[in-house]
Amino acid sequence: MKKIDYKELTLGLLFLILPTILIMYPLLDFLSEYYSLLFVNKHVLIGVFSAGIITAYLLHKTKIRFLIIFGLLLLIINILYNSISASSFNEFDAYYVANRFKINTSIFVFGWFSGFAISRWRYYLIVFSILLTTLSVILISDMEMSNVNEMIWLVAPTVLYLFYVLFVKELLKTIQKQEKTNYVLVVGRILLFSLIALFLFWSTIQLLDSKIDHIQNEITQGQSDESDEEDSDGENEDKDKDSKDDDSSSGAKFNLDDYLGLRDRLNVSEELLFCANIDNFINPTTPNPQYITLYHLNQYNPTLEQFEVDPDSIVRDLFLPNPTKIPQYFTQVNDSVLVYDKMERATKEVKSTIYIAGLSPEVFVAPSTAYACQPISIEEEFKKDYKFAYNVFSEVSELNSAYFVYNTQDESIINYQENRYRTLRRAKSYEGENERFMDYYTEVPEGELYNKIGHLADSLTKGDNTTIDKILSIRNYFLSKDEKGDPLYVYTLTPGKPTDPNIPNASMLDEFMFNTHRGYCTYFATSSLFMLRSLGIPTRVAVGFMTVDRSHKTPGWYWFYGDQGHAWTQVYIPEYGWLDFDMTVSNTDAEQSPQPDGTPPTPPTKETYVGKGVITEVDTLSKTMQVRVDKMIINDNGIALDSTNLLDMSFDVNQAKVFAGEQPIALKNVKLGDTAVMVSFDYKLGRIRKKYNSETIENYMKLFPDPITIMEVHVPKIEEEKLDDATKEEENSAMKTITDWSIYVLAAILLILLVLMLLPICYYLWLSKKAKNHSSITKLSEANYKNAHFILNQMGIPRDHQTPMVYARDVVDPKFGTHFEAFVKTYQKLKYSEDQLTNAEVDLIKEFHSDFNQKVFSKYSKSQRFFNFIKPNKWIHYMLNLNLKK
Amino acid sequence: MSQDLEHTSPNHTQTIAEDTSRKNIDVLIENIGKVVKGHREQIIQIITCLIAKGHILLEDNPGSGKTVMAKTLAHSLSGEQAHSDFKRIQFTPDLLPMDLIGSHLYDESNKDFIFKKGPLFCNILLADEINRASPKVQSALLECMAENQISIGDQTYKLEDLFFVIATQNPIEMEGTYPLPNAQLDRFFMKISFGYVSEDIELEIYKKQLEIQRSQDTVEAVLNMKDILALRSKAEEVHVDDEIIKSINNIVRGTREHSGIILGASVRSGIILLKCLRAYAVIHKRNYVIEDDLAALVKPVLQHRLLFKNLSAEGSAIDSIVKTEISRLSRLNLKK
To answer: Which stretches make up the ChlI/MoxR AAA lid domain (chain B) (predicted)?
Structure first.
């Protein structure tokens, strides 16, 4: 048995095995996390790996019968595995243990193999580290990497390790063999590796490219959305664009903007936007649907023939909250709209519950006149269908109804209609109304067309005394039949362009009213608006959703699809406020929506406790949260706490679901300092009395368990989104930085290469100049000596370890026929002797340069010479091995 | 490494003053080369030892031309007789020191003991198969080589001024031999081996076999003893640059620090190397030492003085040390 080299053994253990174990640590960590190796602990994994690698390394180095031991080991492992998986004391346990054993042993065998290979094959570590780098790149491209830092953490160690291995391997070899380090080899390897690394980097970028694109798209989209928001002066209409995603049924996107003007065609989508439960009934069994208003249109642009939202409208009866910004279960109220809506008689409070599906939850939809909004939770089973829900409280006129054009057979509805007309006929006239109000809502643009409309309206309403009769006459006009018995007006989504080609900018409205009689809701709304206004009736156009009661199984529940986007007229009746009068002729399509009505979502369990406040502590381990509560709702009783007397409460969030807006998130993503809404449906809390009177809040809170069990936690979505954007932007900028850096690195490498190529030429020119004319014979001969060596080196005949004389005599002179030997001899005399040079020798040195250069260069063509000169590797070789010391 | 000592380049100027003895070195080498084919390097090494006042040990298989070499060298030099005084002793285990040194004999006529000189009293001594003799004989010989004189009783006999020992030993038949201890090997300036000649030269040797007997007898004496002594004094004038001395020091110290070498070179080996370098420079008609000389001499001078860890180190250790030094020297700039 040969003597064991303990020095080598220790060096190998310290500088090769230890770093390898260290590098495997994060990688195994990532692997176990990524592939959810639940059976094993990563510490055990790394322990097993190190055991394998160290044992194998020691065994191989100490020359103990390696293969036999390995074979025995494999045999034992196999037997153990079989026995474990065969043992049937408990099936699950056996499976569990066997799997864990399998993973551990495979890691051990991998470690074993690595240890053996490191000891046995010189290049194994290089191959190994390249494999590791590749593996990490694959992992990155495969994983949902949340940020660049994580990515760098995974790649950087392996890359560093590769560099390390390249250097240390060479160093150890040198130490063992007592040789000088071959720098050329190392530099060559580093260069090669850099190329590989660049390639890997590039491929990572390529692999991630699609992801990056996706992220970028999202970002730009987000930005454009934001800018739109700014443009629209806080109005909501553009938000509807949000609903355009995942619409596949009709190919058209739902966009309420289309209802703003008169176009040649209207695109409708058929996706479910939301469903609503409107608690408004004529009698206990007959529901009275209300149109869902989004906003009112007061300004009309006659040239573009489209409506605009007037930001300076004198009647501000539109409640426009952003439901997502209201804390869960808390109510945002705007009483001022109730003043503006001018409803004085026959009003009632109607509660509606809106379940948002396709629509953006930031758009507030409600029957007019809404004044309060309360976001609520959605029952678990409906969460996949509906993303958001809120209660709306509206003041609704008893006389308002979606039933105006439909010819229902329901007796109660017919009765209701009759009653309502009767009541309205008794309504006050517009005398005494605010003049400015009347002017604003009866304004008709100047023009021949509008005069024509006015005349038409006058002729239609001849003989009608009351407002409602005039309205009914106009409605009847739209519903009337022509001479042939066909309907005069036809509902169509594609009214087409004006037929008269002689009038280039023909009015769509003109076409509709006096020619084609074909159009969609906005046409009907616009024409009736001007007819009514010309009669002096204050009218406006409302945009929103037509409520259609299709199913009588679930009274009060209505489903709203994309094709139910609607525009209609609202008429102001004194004391009764704004009432909906939809002049649009019946559109059978809308009544028979492509999708049947769904099952109404069951109302969520009654919340018993809601607390809102700033999160002060999150314990993800014991799943508790500390919140400084400033507002509470206890059994529908809102308690607002004094800002000086906030309550620090702890909540048990074991069963809780955490939502950022509509998105469920993990508890660990909850950020301290955020405002959280804690919701509990615990029925036990429902028994606690609502009111606390004289007692202090502290005493009252003693009735509650500590901690309170919470079912839902809501943290703000907007901030979360911003955070998302921020991280995405960060990621993007990091990506950009990486790309930028890689460009810099590439440029630097190119520059270095260029310099490396140009330097030899510069060096040659400098040497040549020195070798041609120099005052001192010593310097002259030195320059000539270097010059000759350099030229020969670049031409591929380096001296290396030969002595100068042997090199000159045996290599150079026979090849080129130069007098290099004589020159070297003289040079050596100058170097080692104390004698003076003879005149002949001085002449020899002086004449050497031109003769030598000419003879050497004559052997090579010009291009050969050039390419030989610019080769950096030769130059580096020369500088490292032959450069003369100063 | 066959070195061409003829400088044919037209621009080259003879750097050393014309000197018959130096000129004749070339003739001497040529002369020996006529008989001993293909061993030019070894011829030069032997002459280097001769001029450096040293002795040489040839180690090679039988029949590689060791004896022929020694004989030819002796014949090429002329002494008081037609040729220099050449003696050959075949060493055997039963050889006694007296057989070398000589002994006192009783002279009947003078009734006195007279000293009968042994074969050591000669100019060139070929000690064949030195390792076959007993240590006693070996040490007697080596003592003479070191002291250049013989002491018997109260009388001291001086050896010839030019006393040059060419010892040979056979590396293969080690049985029944007394291998020279390291301390005694140290006395030889160089230990060289001949090795096999190239195919062409071997062919030539066979062709000339028929006439070799005649030619050997008629080897001309091209140099005389005075010439050799003159060369020796020339060698003492050779200039050794400080950097070369530094390199010798580096090399000698390097052998002591090298991990492949158990026993490094002594100070004496450094001195011997220095002497050999000067002699070698004289042979190459220089009065200064250059790095080529080092490259040529370090191995034959130092190798037999060192103890190596293993065979592979024996081949490469000195080479790597010399390589480093040569590249150090050849990188040096000129003195300003």
So the answer is: 254-322
Which residues in chain B are closer than 8 Å to A881, comparing Cβ atoms? Answer: 327
Q: Is the dihedral of CA A13, A15, A18, A24 positive or negative?
A: negative
Let me know if residue A191 belongs to a domain: no
- B257: domain range? 237-331
Return mean pLDDT, chain A: 76
Angle between helices A42-61 and A66-86 (to 10 degrees): 150
CATH number of the domain within which B204 lies: 3.40.50.300
Q: Among A803, A819, A821, whose Cβ lies nearest the Cβ of B330?
A: A803
Whole-prediction pTM value?
A: 0.46
Give per-residue pLDDT as tens, B178-221.
888 887 888 889 998 888 888 888 888 888 777 656 555 567 77
Q: How many CB atoms lie within 10 A of CB A800?
A: 12
From residue A382, give the alpha-carbon distance in Å to each of A279, A344, A356, A604, A802: 20, 39, 11, 10, 88
Half-sphere exposure of A849 (CA within 13 A, CB side): 20
Report whether pLDDT(A410) > 90. Answer: no
pLDDT at A241 over 50: no
| pLDDT beyond 50 at A223 | no
pLDDT of A724 over the 60 cut = no
What pLDDT digit, counting tens, does each position of A76-117 carry?
A: 888 887 777 776 555 556 666 777 777 888 888 888 888 888
- Pick left, alpha or beta for residue B258 (phi over 0 → left; psi -120 to 50 → alpha; otherwise beta): beta
**Domain range enclosing A693:** 609-715
Min CA distance, B335 vs chain A (Å)?
Answer: 6
Q: Is it the case that residue A224 has pLDDT exceeding 50?
A: no
A175-185, pLDDT tens digit by residue? 655 555 566 66
* Pick among B246, B278, B292 to test the A interface (most A CBs inside 10 A): B292
CA distances A667 to A714, A841, B35, B280, Å, are 11, 91, 101, 89
Banded pLDDT at B246 (limits 50, 70, 90): very high
The C-alpha atoms of residue A307 and residue A526 are separated, in whole angstroms, by 9
- Residue A486 burial (10 A CB sphere; 0-12, 13-18, 19+): exposed
Task: Classify residue A89 by burial, with Cβ atoms within 10 Å: 0-12, 13-18, 19+.
Answer: exposed
What is the percentage of chain A residues whose pLDDT exceeds 70? 78
Token pair of A232 as six digits: 């629209």
In this structure, the answer to whether residues A554 and A621 fall within a common structural domain is no
**DSSP conformation letters of A492-538:** -S---S-S-TT-TT--HHHHIIIII-EE-HHHHHHHHHHHHHHTT--
Residue B239: list chain A partners with CB under 8 A.
832-835
Task: Kindly write down the DSSP assignment for every residue of B115-166, as one continuous string.
Answer: EEE-TTSSSEEEEETGGGS-HHHHHHHHHHHHHSEEEETTEEEE--SS-EEE
Our CA-based measurement puts residue A40 at a distance from the nearest CA of chain B, in whole angstroms, of 48
| Cis upstream peptide for A369 (omega within 30°) | yes
Interface confidence, given as ipTM, is: 0.81
Tell me if A233 is assigned to some domain.
no
Residues A493 and A618 in one domain: no
Q: Number of folded domains in chain A? A: 4
What's the pLDDT at A838? 85
In whole angstroms, give the CA distance from residue A304 to residue A453: 18
- Do A710 and A751 belong to one domain? no
Q: How many contacts, defined by CB atoms under 8 Å, are there between A and B?
A: 99
In this prediction, what percent of chain B has a pLDDT beyond 70?
Answer: 89
- d(C-alpha B168, C-alpha B62), whole Å: 10
- Asked whether residue B210 falls in the same domain as residue B323, the answer is no
